[in-house]
Design goal:
- By secondary structure, the chain is of the alpha+beta class.
- It has 9 helices and 13 strands.
- The strands form 3 sheets. A 5-stranded antiparallel sheet has the order 11-10-9-12-13, sandwiched between helices.
- The radius of gyration is 19 Å and the shape is globular.
- The mean pLDDT is 96.
Amino acid sequence: MTGFLVVNAYLKGEKFDTLHKHLVNCAESMGILLKIKNNEDMLFCDETPDFVLFWDKDVNLAKTLEGKGIPVFNPSEAIALCDDKAKTYLALDGIVKQPETIIAPLSFFDADYSEFVKKAAEKLGLPLVFKECCGSFGEQVFLCESVDEVLSHVSDKPFLLQEFIAESKGEDVRLEIVGGKCVAAMKRQNKNDFRSNITNGATAVPYTPTDNEIALAQKACNTLGLTFGGVDILRGGYVCEVNSNAHIINLLEVTKIDVAKDIFSTIKSKI
């Protein structure tokens, strides 16, 4: 069996190289020849693999590959829903518990959002969380104590405002769901930041999730159409974020569980 690992041509760095090599080596150990292809290469590639492991967010390319009849994991629609925090919230609204969220009205140019932010702050309370709709590793996410602080982060990029779950400040649990099953989990804590991303200085330990947390994560991944995904859950049972291609090396280092094996086993069962 031959597969392509599709990655982004413009994201460079040791952590990406480590992840990509790990996936290739794991696939080889399971009898799969996994070739690394970046999203630029794929535009000019005539070779047809048995499947694509799409470790990127280039949704247009993923849809193009699906249009050629190539199985893509995760599917393009699932990637699109996870990449945009507003789309994630809307897809899961009424299905799983989430922090109260107000998505900013769309503007096609720099606009004065002061009245919107004032009304949102009255409804959500302060402090509140500002999030650009697209971003990774906790970037473009800020805890704002005032309306002026919120406005200082507003740009021409789509954003949303979210209720701050104070009891979960700097803490969450990450559950990795593969093929509908919870295969690993860790608890992340950051004493110096309200965000629990390891990139921002959080530490993590292995975690045994509750039945309710597992059910929440499974429902979120199923609703979003994910074959595999990392689900972040705050104290109180709030789903905070769902990742279509979570950085599984951190999870491996913390839990000693290699999620890649579960991902390839699931892919092989679907081909």
